[in-house]
């Protein structure tokens, strides 16, 4: 089996994190000797913001105001991780990056630099109503109506352009997935589409 590369897209509440984990478990089962690198930019951002550095303070200020962090930060997060950890023989997952067209272009350059063959983009597509219902079901304090609306609006304005970049790039296999089904149904669809 060749090392696989997956880029997961989907708004908050689409279940992309769950589907990434299910796909990783399937790969681990099928190819147990091969390492998996999973880069979830949002989680690494939150870890960075919890620090005491000047950068952490500025990130906290931005997030507190509901503003976006500049593109160089998520790019730096996943670039540094790749430089330090990639050997060329592992399965590679991106969840939460890229978030903007500029980031998509830079990630594409990294994938080409590391000679990743046949990368696959999985876009889990759900309506705002579906995503909102799922997010409200999580019962998290930051899942207020206003916050959810803001996140989904931001996704439509920014991330959709990044998705279009990969959709129109012949070097990538682009797979749109209907996410408005059970977790198992979505998982089975992904398995069929990626040939696992």
Descriptive report:
The structure is a single chain. α1 (16-30) packs across α8 (183-194), α4 (72-85) runs parallel beside α5 (101-113) and α6 (128-138) packs across α7 (145-167). The chain has 8 helices and 5 strands, in the order βαβαααβαβααβα. It has a 5-stranded parallel beta sheet with strand order 2-3-1-4-5, with helices on both faces. It is α/β, with parallel strands linked by helices and 196 residues long. The chain has helices at 16-30, 41-49, 54-64, 72-85, 101-113, 128-138, 145-167, 183-194, and strands spanning 5-9, 36-40, 91-95, 120-125, 173-178. The longest helix is centred in the C-terminal third of the chain and has 23 residues, at 145-167. It has a single domain (5-42, 90-194), classed as Rossmann fold (3-Layer(aba) Sandwich). It is globular, with a radius of gyration of 17 Å.
How many strand elements?
A: 5
CATH A-level architecture: 3-Layer(aba) Sandwich
Q: Give start-end ranges of low-pLDDT stretches.
A: none
What is the H level of CATH, i.e. the homologous superfamily? P-loop containing nucleotide triphosphate hydrolases
Largest sheet, strands/sense/barrel: 5 strands, parallel
Counting DSSP H or I runs of 4 or more residues, the number of helices is 8
- How many separate domains make up the residues? 1
Q: Into which percentage range does the β-strand content fall? A: 5-15%
**H/E element order:** EHEHHHEHEHHEH
């Amino acid at each position: 089996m060749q090392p696989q590369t997956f880029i997961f897209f989907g708004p908050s509440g689409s279940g992309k994190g769950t589907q990434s984990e299910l796909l990783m478990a399937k790969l681990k089962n099928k190819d147990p000797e091969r390492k998996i690198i999973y880069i979830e930019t949002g989680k690494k951002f939150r870890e960075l913001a919890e620090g005491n550095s000047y950068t952490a303070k500025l990130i906290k200020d931005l997030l507190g105001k509901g503003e976006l962090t500049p593109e160089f930060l998520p790019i730096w997060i996943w670039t540094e991780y790749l430089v330090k950890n990639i050997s060329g023989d592992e399965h590679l997952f991106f969840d939460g990056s890229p978030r903007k067209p500029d980031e998509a272009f830079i990630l594409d350059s990294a994938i080409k630099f590391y000679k990743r063959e046949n990368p696959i983009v999985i876009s889990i597509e759900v309506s705002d109503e579906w995503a909102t219902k799922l997010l409200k079901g999580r019962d998290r304090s930051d899942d207020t109506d206003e916050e959810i609306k803001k996140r989904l609006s931001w996704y439509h304005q920014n991330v959709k352009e990044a998705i279009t970049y990969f959709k129109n790039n012949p070097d990538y296999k682009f797979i749109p997935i209907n996410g408005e089904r059970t977790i198992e149904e979505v998982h089975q669809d992904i398995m069929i589409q990626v040939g696992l």
